[in-house]
Design a protein that fits this description.
332 residues, mainly beta, 1 helix
């Protein structure tokens, strides 16, 4: 059952400074929701022709955005399973997606070496961000400001963009390709996961490497928890590690017999209340772990091909998963 609580101004102030981590406050009341453990496939959608490598939910919404190998981006109403709108203009496969905190702009990383930013209301391309020399495999937007975007490509660069002006303001060059990245909650640091197995932290202003920690084997994906305290990493060793952001030490490791990552861009996720982790497998199963006990609490079977990504709605439910055949399942 989803619990919805309004937070007073004093509680909001306290949450912003707890554990020394500054969190972004939204306008109006924040939603603090207990995530349910999914067990049933509510909708099975043939979302794309070819694989669907990236999915995300709008903030505090049940609307799901999917990006596919067919170069299309689609917006779905998960309450009804219906298609709400399409976004056109991407010239390559969609490899990653992000959305600004006000749900106004969707940004796609593409195999065309470019990034595309759409106005979600009008459906028009606002910017085409050019400068990478190889496919762009990861993108994220600042949780503090909708202005700054970071991207990583297989040209061994990480770029910082000014979305207001539409151009690159900083480039970080490194010897190991980056598979995944995300902003810290305060917008000052970038977390990046690399094919050499390391998780790295960068200063966004200077581009200086602040710290690094080894995951094991190739690091495929990382995901920052909603409260900013935990980074989830997934690797080619089929392990999912939970790192404490403050100490960069592993606070938990999740594994399951039969769980095998499907690609170099397989994407796992943490539930909004931090109590569960969901990850897809090459056998078509979605595994859900308890983060406190590190054991499997649910195994979801509906897909018939390898799963590429999972994402939880910030409302606590549903959970969505997408596979190599372009099928998206909505779980409740």
């Amino acid at each position: 059952m989803i619990k919805q609580l309004k937070a007073t101004g004093l509680e909001q102030l306290a949450r912003q400074h707890v554990d020394g981590i500054v969190r972004r406050s939204e306008e109006g009341a924040d939603l603090f929701l207990e995530s349910s453990i999914p067990s049933t496939c509510k909708y099975k959608l043939q979302a794309h022709e070819g694989g669907c490598a990236s999915i995300l939910f709008e903030y505090n919404s049940s609307k799901l955005i999917t990006g596919g190998q067919d170069r299309s981006i689609k917006v779905w109403d998960t309450n009804t399973g219906s298609l709400s709108s399409n976004l056109y203009g991407c010239l390559g496969s969609v490899l990653d997606l992000t959305i600004t905190h006000d749900n106004q702009i969707v940004i796609a990383a593409s195999s065309s070496n470019n990034l595309y930013a759409w106005d979600l209301n009008s459906g028009r391309v606002r910017h085409t961000l050019t400068g990478h020399k190889d496919k762009v495999c990861a993108v994220d937007v600042s949780k503090v400001s909708s202005r700054h975007v970071v991207s990583a490509a297989y040209d061994r660069t990480i770029k910082v963009w000014d979305l207001l002006k539409g151009y690159c303001i900083n480039t970080i060059i490194f010897h190991s390709n980056c598979n995944a990245l995300c902003f810290s909650m305060d917008g000052q640091t970038i977390f990046s996961g690399h094919v050499d197995g390391n998780l790295r932290l960068w200063d966004i202003k200077t581009g200086k490497l602040l710290s690094e920690v080894w995951h094991t084997q190739v690091l495929l994906h990382q995901y920052l928890s909603r409260n900013g305290n935990v980074v989830l990493t997934s690797g080619r060793d089929n392990l999912h590690n939970l790192f404490d952001v403050r100490s960069l030490e592993v606070s938990g490791t999740l594994r399951a017999t039969g769980n095998r990552v499907a690609s170099n861009w397989s994407r796992s996720c943490i539930s909004p209340d931090n109590n569960h982790v969901a990850a897809g497998s090459s056998d078509g199963s979605v595994y859900v772990w308890s983060t406190s006990r590190a054991d499997i609490v649910s195994t979801l079977k509906e897909h018939t091909s390898s799963i590429l990504c999972c994402k939880w709605s910030g409302l606590g439910e549903p959970l969505a998963s997408a596979d190599k055949n372009g099928v998206v399942c909505i779980w409740t």
